[in-house]
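ingest -> validate -> predict -> emit
validate: passed (alphabet ok, no gaps, 172 aa)
predict: started
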Amino acid sequence: MATACFRVSRPRSCIALLVGLCLAVPVQAAGPRFIDLAARVGPGESADDTAYHELNRWLVQEFNDLCEDFFCRGAYGNYRPLRLVCVVDTRDDTLRHCRFPVSASRDAIDPGSGAVRTEVLHWICPLPLPRRLPVSTFLAAMDWQPDSSGHLFNPLPGSGRSMVEFLRDCLP
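emit:
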């Protein structure tokens, strides 16, 4: 069949086949269109220590430090942030959307039998970000700001509100 492409009698089908093959190769080589921000490696970063990983460490630590004063009141006192999840469009290095999942539990012990009943809940708190926000803009906004009390208090691009404010609205 490959020799048929070189016959003069079928030049259109040969051209169509070659064009199809040429178009298919870059799509496969380019990689996925959407990736997790955790998998994105920026210029000059190593895969295990990116700006995202540093930001996520700070967000989790700050959440745990602030939990008692801001989030962990009421029926659920055992809140745990999971991790910041953002979808990156690799075509233009912009964010599609971000969310911050949080889990919590509460336990009850039956005084008569000693049985433990545990209720586990989780919330997925979306971060309202502008469409097609460049990853670099988001990471810069979330970086340590001299006039901020921490990463969770930095104003999110496009809203002027902080993650703390959105988390307080999202969590019971």
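The first helix runs from residue 11 to 30.
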